[in-house]
Design a protein that fits this description.
Blueprint: H1 2-9, E1 23-25, E2 30-32, H2 34-43, E3 51-53, E4 76-78, E5 83-85, H3 87-90, E6 99-101, H4 102-212, H5 216-221, H6 226-230, E7 244-248, E8 252-257, E9 260-265, E10 282-293, E11 300-306, E12 310-315, E13 319-324, E14 329-334, E15 345-347, E16 353-357, E17 362-365, E18 380-386, E19 392-397, E20 402-408, E21 411-416, E22 436-440, E23 446-450, E24 455-459, E25 465-469, E26 482-487, E27 493-497, E28 502-506, E29 512-516, E30 524-529, E31 535-539, E32 544-551
Amino acid sequence: MADSKLWAQEVIICDLCDKPTQQFCNSCQINLCVECVHKHVDKLQPLSHEIVCSKNRNTQCVLPECKIHPGRRCEVQCQQCQIPICVRCCIGTHKNHDAVELVELFEIKKQELQNFTDEIEKKLIPKYNKTDADLQEKLTETTAKFNKMEEEKEVLRKRWHQEVDTIFDKLGSSISLMKESNLESIKTQQKTIKDTTQDMVQTVQHNKLVLKTNRTSDVIEHKSNLNQFSNIITNIDIFTPPVLVDTIKGNGLSIEIGEYKAELTYKINLPVDVSYPSTKELLQLAKVIAVISCTLYQPLYEVACWGKNEAWICGNSNTFTRIDINGKINGHIGDTSLHSAPHDIAVTVHGDLIYIDGRKGKMKTRGHDDSLVSIPQDWIPYRLCCSKSGDILICVSNGLEKKIIRYHEKKITQEIHKDENGKPIFEGKISHALCIHAVENNNGDVCISNDNAGVIIVVRLAGKVRFRYDGKPAKMNKKFRPRNIVTDSLGQIIVADNGNSCLHILDQDGQFIKCVDNCELDNVHALSVDDEGRLWAELFKPGIIKVIQYLE
């Protein structure tokens, strides 16, 4: 009764014309409307058709038509010929052949298909899915491992580059010392020869006067110093040791010059917790080891370290004073041609004090009135620093533009103001060139501090920007305001952050190491590093210098 109601409610569509119908062919298992019943029967006229109401439909197998006897349906399968056949075929061409009912064979094959489907669906697909998940996990794990290897490789690259830089810095120092020693010997001997030559010229003149006299006593008493002049050394042994390089195949490199020898071996042994080599030299907590009150200059403007325990300082006057770490005054230099405070001071590799006469646009040394270098017309120098190679870097401005000029032996060899893409390096509004500071690092990089833009820019020796540092890694509360910038013997970059009254310490590749924020560094106006690796921080408002030890 329930089935009858269900069939009454269901709308059945004809399989031939898509019209609603309630007719069904049990023989062919298709729905038929009234018009299509005759078409269906006429088309398959030889076959018998059981046409019933849809509610009396009987789901059954559709037996195929015999290809040999039209109008007959095949009821069995010939096992020998493996084809469906009808009853007439069984007594004809397929007589005495084993046969099986098609319905029975259909059920057997259907069960096999069901088993095969279940095998795929319930066993093989889950197994493949699990294998795929395992492979995905292995893919993720392998990717992570190789990414870690890439990171370790980059860490190694930095460590090797730093080691190579250290080796060749020491090699350069060794060559410089030998060069200075040999040149000094030559110059000393040259001076001796010049002095002796002058003595001989005077002797010749005197001898000629004696020769002209007729006084016997003058000639007889005259003593010859020919032996003294004959003993002059005319040959100086100059030793220039060869640079010996030995590449140890598969193991490393050995380089030797004179008494200096260095080896670089291919040994990779990364610790579990990889750290930058420079951090091993840093104190856990920096400390102020001296406070120098500079009452001589109010206000105090600049400080430049000189040797191990001394520094040159200046203020709003035309004098420069050399003080030691205890505040003792050890010397003065005056320059009456200065009518205002110098823009900046620095100490060269030879120990000479140099400074900028802002009004005249000159850079001078030790109070001499002559210019040490020639500043381009219409450009005013503001900041300067000296490199270990002897070059001088000067920050200049013409009112609109700012740039850094490198001088080598009074000649301009480089101008830094644009990056490799032609974009200005000094982005942002720069009200005054005094906001720009520059210093050269051990590896030749030029490190530039731009207070207005709040960024540190590091440029390769060739002029390409290596990286920028905006202070964010330090996670300070206030805006990053980089002012003075220096580098130390380890190649670390140290920046005075006046916005947060602290120092940022970076490695030479721009990686943030730590902040020094425990020394009360309010309004740092100048920074310098002495030969002992200590920071001299000049605080503008109180007019004091704090000497800070931050290395072990």
